[in-house]
Amino acid sequence: MKHLLYGGLLLAALCLWACRDGNLGLGKSLVESSFYNVYVDTCTVDISTVKLDSIETGGDSVCQLGHYSDDVWGEVYSSYYAEYSVTNFTPSADNAYLLDSLVLRLIPLGHFWGDTLQEQRISIYQLRYPIVLDNDEELYNTTSQLLEETPLTTFTYLPRPGAKREVEVRLPDALGREFLEDIVAQDDRFNSQDNFKKYFPGLVFKAEADGGCITGFLVNDTAMSLNLYYREVAVESEEKSLTFSVNMDYAYTGIKQDCSDSPLSVVTGGLENLVHSTDMDNRAYMQGLTGYYNQLEFPYLNDLQSRGEIVSIEEAVLCLYSLAKSYNEVSQLPEDIRLYITDENNVLEDYVYGSDGVTVQTGDLVVDEMYGKETYYSFDLTEFIRNNFGTWGSKRQKLLMSMNDDDCATTFNQVVFTNEPGQDRQCRLKVRFKTYNEQ
């Protein structure tokens, strides 16, 4: 899985509230026995926050551009690095070719993180050298490149939630004329991709620090493209254009984050450095491109064995509550989060599936549109709890939780989970089980 997988200890004391459905006497003439249905509403959930060292963002059809800073996530810069594909063109010796403009075409997706009333400034730099893949032939949000000291141009835009109005940015005419003259002259630099990227390594879209929003942009054959507009002059003048598309194999979103003054300052990369929610004011954090996800365990699950001589799990539902007012018009909740089963060594074994055993659960999201206090995700963990009930140590499985791969690599969607001990709205495991006792 691309990037992931990889939670604070919301250690609330285990509170059991039993609801008995009556004494069912069976074989009373032989053995006095009783069956009971028992419901546990607040079985302790241990949720921790983890940070991925890196996320694979190469080749994605969405990029993020901008700068945003707040008290929770710190200061985040999102940039885009792109190599461009060479374009074939056969000029006519009888015609003249005149530059009109060299223009970048950007199409916002309407996705955003931050204040959409504040303009964002983006500077466009030329790469100093062609983009090189990392050792494993991938590109990540942490991959670094050298760029020229002076930007080719800088532009501003005002994010518009839900709108996909095209943005055009004109690059220097000197660069456009150089392109056109070399193409018309059939210079070797335009004969192959290798030659072209040595001549023109690509572009970097870098946010300036005065911005207050990060916006998603589409990337495809025409979006984020470099367009050379010119006139072909023969008997008559005709307007034409050449399109240089992003070479998706050598393009990626890069992230820089400074959370030294935020609650996340205690979280460093790697699953071995997970931080329990009790060490983070009873909260746990998940976000896409910055790489925060969660680990979950149920440390007191086996205490249920004390409820009877024989205990069988009938149903288990996990409810994870979002901190009230942690999402709004600035921050967007993920609609799809996944649970992954791991062994004691954190080796991934499988997804958590639905009751059909085939459909991957995505954390049924319930949103409290009025007050925001009753917003939560839920998972049916019946099978997982059955498999782990009565196990200890190396036999006990754990859960990792993150957004799906695409959202993790292309969005800043986020959720802050709350697990305040003794509060109604906290991460909890609801278990219904049967007990059998001899009298």
Strand and helix layout:
Layout: E1 33-43, E2 46-51, E3 62-70, E4 74-84, E5 96-106, E6 108-114, E7 120-126, E8 153-157, E9 167-171, H1 173-184, H2 193-199, E10 203-207, E11 213-218, E12 225-233, E13 237-244, E14 246-258, E15 275-276, E16 283-287, E17 292-297, E18 310-321, E19 337-342, E20 348-351, E21 364-366, E22 376-380, H3 382-388, E23 398-403, H4 405-410, E24 414-418, E25 428-438
Antiparallel strand pairs: 1-25, 2-15, 2-17, 3-4, 3-11, 4-10, 4-14, 5-9, 5-12, 6-11, 7-8, 7-10, 12-13, 16-24, 17-23, 18-22, 18-25, 19-20, 19-23, 21-22
Question: Explain this structure to me?
Answer:
The chain has 439 residues and is mainly beta. The protein folds into 2 domains: 33-53 and 269-438, Jelly Rolls (Sandwich); 62-258, no CATH class. It is 7% helix and 41% strand. The chain is built from 4 helices and 25 strands. The strands form 5 sheets. Strands 3, 4, 6, 7, 8, 10, 11 and 14 form an 8-stranded antiparallel β-sheet that branches. It has a 6-stranded antiparallel β-sheet with strand order 15-2-17-23-19-20. The longest helix has 12 residues, at 173-184. The two termini are 52 Å apart. The relative contact order is 0.24. The model is unreliable at 1-31 (pLDDT under 50).
